[in-house]
């Protein structure tokens, strides 16, 4: 076993911190996907040790905001990983789940859950989503909108595949190393709202999002980092095109 560090009365294994830090540390895309492939077998153990709450919080927020019965809603889980978000959505009555991820290892684990009707490999950013326009009642991106991961520029592609009136559920972290990305993401969100393509339904700040992987990431000394769940609704009427 590697070294351990105490956080809020619990012991967090050093190797967990190292794996999390590795996938968030940037590097080129092939290297990041290789790290995710290698992490797939231990991913759920590690995020449980981190007390990672984003899948639960995102699914609960989407279920609260969703305007109709969930059973018939078609939902796209972007960067689906091993299927943690799908489990939470399924508990809340969302049954028609599609997923995409750039990691073959993660997709293999997601497929084993039996919760997805469709799974495809897609690296969002370089690749367009493998779906026609206005296809989904809801789109989720949980955990992947962050520094060194999915770029902020993907918002328009997420909107493309969302039905008018459909919801987009997005999350990001508020720890120091992700603040620049969070600012860029929120600026892009505000810009799209001003253009009239979507409207904000909620932005919920959560203090104990997950355990910090270093003291620098939790400057308040709590041992946790904070995060945000955003829900946006795609506008029913597209904005007028300027000449």
Automatic annotation (TrEMBL):
Any coiled-coil regions, as ranges: none
Signal peptide: none
Cross-referenced InterPro entries: Methyltransf_25, SAM-dependent_MTases_sf
Record CDD domains: AdoMet_MTases
Methyltransferase domain ranges (all copies): 75-166
Pfam families per UniProt: Methyltransf_25 (PF13649)
Protein name, UniProt field: MET27 protein
Taxonomic source organism: Turnix velox
UniProt gene name: Mettl27
């Amino acid at each position: 076993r590697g070294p351990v560090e105490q956080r809020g009365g619990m012991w967090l294994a050093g190797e967990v911190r190292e794996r999390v830090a590795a996938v968030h540390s940037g590097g080129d895309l092939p290297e990041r996907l290789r790290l995710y492939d290698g992490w797939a077998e231990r991913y759920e153990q590690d995020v449980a040790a981190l007390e990672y709450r984003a899948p639960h919080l995102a699914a609960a927020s989407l279920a609260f905001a969703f305007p109709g019965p969930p059973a018939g809603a078609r939902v796209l889980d972007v960067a689906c990983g091993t299927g943690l978000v799908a489990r939470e959505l399924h508990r809340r009555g969302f049954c028609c789940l599609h997923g995409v991820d750039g990691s073959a290892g993660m997709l293999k684990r997601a497929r084993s859950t039996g919760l997805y009707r469709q799974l495809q490999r897609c690296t969002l950013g370089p690749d367009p989503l493998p779906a026609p326009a206005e296809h989904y009642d809801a789109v989720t991106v949980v955990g992947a909108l962050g520094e060194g991961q999915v770029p902020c520029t993907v918002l328009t592609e997420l909107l493309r595949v969302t039905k008018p009136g459909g919801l987009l559920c997005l999350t990001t972290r508020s720890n120091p190393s992700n603040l620049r990305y969070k600012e860029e993401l929120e600026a892009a969100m505000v810009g799209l709202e001003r253009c009239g393509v979507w409207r904000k339904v909620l932005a919920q700040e959560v203090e104990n999002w997950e355990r910090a992987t270093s003291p620098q990431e939790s400057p308040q000394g709590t041992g946790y980092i904070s995060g945000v769940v955003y829900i946006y609704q795609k506008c029913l009427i597209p904005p007028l095109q300027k000449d």
